[in-house]
Protein 1
Amino acid sequence: MLPEIPGHQVHGSKLHGLRTTVSRLLGSKSTGFAGAQPISFSAQHLEELKNENYFVSEKADGIRCLMFTTTDSQGRGETYLIDRHNNYYQLDFGLPMERSRQFHYDTLMDGELVLDIYDDGRKLLWFLLFDCMAVDGKCLVDRPYHKRLGHLREFILKPYRELLRADLNYAQRQPFRMDLKKLQLAYHLQAVFDEIPTLKHKSDGIIFTSKDARYGLGTCDKMLKWKPADENTVDFKVKVIGDYNKPIFVLQLWQGNDTYTDHGILKLSPDEATSWLQDPPDGRIIECRYDPEWATEWRFARFRDDKAHANHINTYEKIMISIRDGVSKDELLNTAPDIRSRYKEREARERR
């Protein structure tokens, strides 16, 4: 179950100004969504995990958002969530500076909205942070990941937690709980897999992130997404053609800008076909699961209205490599001892 993004959506000149501010903050020519996008895990990455230090975490099935926090002309804090469509949602709080009554300005972080659902029906919304791109006007994207995590812990989350404890009114205005996403060194794979069944939200794989990599605006080849081979999915755009009573649903892949290319035809189950006939999803983004036993190989999984585009054709090709390689959970776990020994060797050399 995907959560709803809290706050009220920003429009017009204010939206344009916020997008421009974030773009300048990152030194980017684009005003589009700047979040790093992982690539699919393939067999070649097993060796990379041995040769380079990586963190690993579970891949929560939530809504990916950036968080931008700044101050207004009176110094009052204001915070925005930015979704993949590059929409901005304003929230009624700022983030405090360390040992100060002032709020952070021009600060950008990366995270995910996750909805925990408990056995008794209670629901709890979290914003789990996993990266920090800028703090108080200082761009951090070229710094190593572990350094950016240090900024996130010390300059963002530590004073935030202190203010939550000290100011009941501030705490009551929070639309969610906020914390650092739990990260492990890559050789602790077993611990991550063991934790997934205990989580109160859906998890659909794991994410590896290089400990020393810069933040990659757009596609990031140092952020690796692993799923079981039979759970790998592709996001397509639907194009509806043909007769109204017998529509044909064409799957399209993104080529950049507003350009799409036809990939193939989607075959639906009888129930899906009836539903889609009543409300044809022309132009919508859908997630499809690869099934070689299915007539057209791709089976509809769910709508992804949280995404602005289908997968880029280059991303699709990498996902297909991941599917063909089919790196299993056991293969990952069997690599963990070698990942650990190589890590310890590098650690010992650094101490000399």
Protein 2
Amino acid sequence: SALAKKLSDLNSSQQSIQTLSLWLIHHRKHHATIVKVWFKELVKAKDSRKLTFMYLANDVIQNSKKKGPEYGKEFATVLRKAFEAMAVPENDEKTRRSLGRILQIWEERGVSESEVEVEVDGMKELHVTLSPRTPAGDPPEPEELIKALSDLENSASSDAAVRERVANLPPEVSELSYLTKLEDRAAGERLAIQVGEAVKLLNEYNKRLSAEMKDREKLMVMMRDFVQAQRDLLAQAELRLEEYSEKLRKVYAVRQEVKSHLQNLPDLTQLPDVTGGLAPLPSAGDLFSLH
């Protein structure tokens, strides 16, 4: 199938994983079939390539949450078997650490509605509780977040002038007991005017406070989405750092071997002069010239 071919061409580079991940997310309506093929090809793959399949699953699960929980739920049905199929040798610490990191990410994020128990190192069982959570929305741009925070600097709750006006309202506008102290109609009319002004002031201020609450709730969602996006990026960066640190270690090893090999090779510039100072051979013209 086309998917099996794409999986066979998959390599551990970030571009390869992200490209196929985007393709799978685009075709998420076929998530059940896709996960089945993914698991089948993982089982068939060489041990050296199986970790790349797990990186792909991680990318799909993390980046599809905004569009829906389908992949998280579907992958949860095969995760245990997938980890069992990894058959990681006891001395392969790098792969064990990478798998443990992926599991830790899933545990922190929550991508489905089931629980998976995976034994990573033969000693520790990692219980990954995949709980239903509200999928994060598209994270705001930093400029949007800064503007929202800046707007709240002039919020109703920080309006000291209005708060002072409310605090200085005369007690008679809020205490019924003062009504018994009214001596005549004129005093009652003056009180009615004061109460009307207090009602207007408090109504307007309460409306501003209600609007501020909505703005703060909106800001909380924006910050949640922004923080979640940064955590996802951090997790991906950590995985990449580990992967490329291993590549760098291999390059260092090759460089060291090259240096060692060069030291054992002869330096042709230091070889003795094999001609021994002999005169040069005669040319063809010299050989056939007549004396």
Protein 3
Amino acid sequence: MSAKESNRRDLLVLGAGQLGMAVLRALAPRAAERRQSVTVVVSPQTVSSSRPGDIESLGILQALGVEVIGFDLAGDAAALQALFERYRTVVNCTGFVAGPGTQLKITRAALDAEVERYFPWQFGVDYDVVGQGSGQPVFDEQYDVRQLLRAQQQTEWVIISTGMFTSFLFEPAFDVVNLAARTVHGLGTWDTRVTVTTPEDIGRLTTEILLAEPRIANEVVYVAGDTISYGELAEVVERVTGYAFEKTLWSLDKLRADLALAPDDVMTRYRAAFALGDGMWWDKANTFNAKHGIETVDVAHYLQHLLEA
């Protein structure tokens, strides 16, 4: 090991949003047991923020023993590389908030910094199956990130495929399940399937995958809270709520027509993409969590907790 490598700190997590905090809550105590350091990158504004939510998050991170640094990930690529050169493992939980091209930039910086291990922001669908041209530009970028990682051998990478966040099924703007309006919209067909996982489960499973022995490297790892068809989803919603819901199927032709009328609308893009089915789901029985006997929250239990909150 070179002097440069021996001076590196252990774990750097990018982002302390919904997923980043879930990862840190699970990872920080386990890293502390191994006497490994954990650092998180947040926006410079967050470090000195007076917003109650930011103050609460910073307090939680301090209690977890996580070092917090402010850094603008949308800024200079050379500065990003210099930051990464101080760490052995980088876990990217930033999402798409920094705009198009950011995930490729972060990935290039991690590779140029020769970090030992990189967990990219791929907490989503199977971009190998989706490929390019899905109608969702961020999906195209995610596919390109995979090609970039596979084209090199210096840095180990681990991709964790999670499906969509479970909560997104119940997001009114996405309009698959609208609890207030008591409507369910199927995307593509009622048999079209989707894999979903909660951020909390993703945080726990990411920690298990990161710390697994023998070490997982250069592999796509699949996890799932649930894999469910839109028809099954409608049945679960009615059973758990105890109410009848108006059920409407949005065909792929209808969703593509919607997309033609509003090509820049993010939710219209997502509905058209998830209606395709392929790459949006995998069998829960074959996932990392199922194989290791790790229980996860399915849609029915998620909805029950949501209604009780």
